[in-house]
Amino acid sequence: MRWQDREGSNNIEDARGSSGGGGMGGGKPIGIIGLIILLIGAYNGVDLSGLVGGANQLSNAQQQTRQQPQYSQQEQQLYKLSSVVLRETEKVWGAYFQKMGKTYQEPVLQIYSGATRTGCGTGQASAGPFYCPADNKLYIDLSFYNTMKNQLGAEGDAAFAYVIAHEVGHHVQTMLGTLGKVHNLQQQVGKTESNALSVKLELQADCYAGVWGYYAQKDGLFEDGDIEEAYVAAEAVGDDTLQQRAQGYTVPHTYTHGTSAERKKWLQRGLQTGDINQCNTFGAQ
């Protein structure tokens, strides 16, 4: 990706020095089982504390030494990349909302290490990247890059950009009212139906990530091979792929994000059309 000389976002918080961080190697590794459970994220405003360790772990982490951390060159690069990608999404979605006669409220991206407090409860690095609608923030521990590379077989700048753009997609859903409506509906149905709605939300966020990629590509952000990197990343986090790797079989009614094929399909649709109206996963069979 051609991102090195581009403008970064002003809506980025560096909370690594106050969130029990240890740099790229300081977080606890995320196992495949953990990915299945925790990549669900906080898009529906759930309290993360029960999933990722709770306030006590956060308190303990924050009691660690608070000397100014020294970040590796890789982490410094990932921080800048995250800032640039966020800025690129701000430009694309700001213009898109303006065309609809609406104002795009830019989300904040918090870079943390170890654990952090969020409007949806306590977040921890093992949760992977997530979005919290209660505070309109995206959260990411940069060590997730190594999880993608070493455990999921998805690496590269474009793969990491896809992850950020997907979480921004959940923010777009919040701004459009989709996420709130679906969350309310999930409270009225059974677990299987709730999971199916979750899948549709996630696939739509993939499509929105693709819509962003359509315009980013026109703006010269992507180089040869970048789109393929994004596709590999989308496929790597498909429910069927994660479950097969973790337990040797799949349980479709427990899917919350969609299959690898579905995730690639909807990301591809957004990338090829650049049209948010083509992202109606709720109306698709």
Automatic annotation (TrEMBL):
<feature type="region of interest" description="Disordered">
    <location>
        <begin position="1"/>
        <end position="23"/>
    </location>
</feature>
<feature type="compositionally biased region" description="Basic and acidic residues">
    <location>
        <begin position="1"/>
        <end position="16"/>
    </location>
</feature>
<dbReference type="Pfam" id="PF04228">
    <property type="entry name" value="Zn_peptidase"/>
</dbReference>
<dbReference type="GO" id="GO:0016020">
    <property type="term" value="C:membrane"/>
</dbReference>
<keyword id="KW-0472">Membrane</keyword>
<protein>
    <submittedName>
        <fullName>Neutral zinc metallopeptidase</fullName>
    </submittedName>
</protein>
<keyword id="KW-0812">Transmembrane</keyword>
<keyword id="KW-1133">Transmembrane helix</keyword>
<dbReference type="InterPro" id="IPR007343">
    <property type="entry name" value="Uncharacterised_pept_Zn_put"/>
</dbReference>
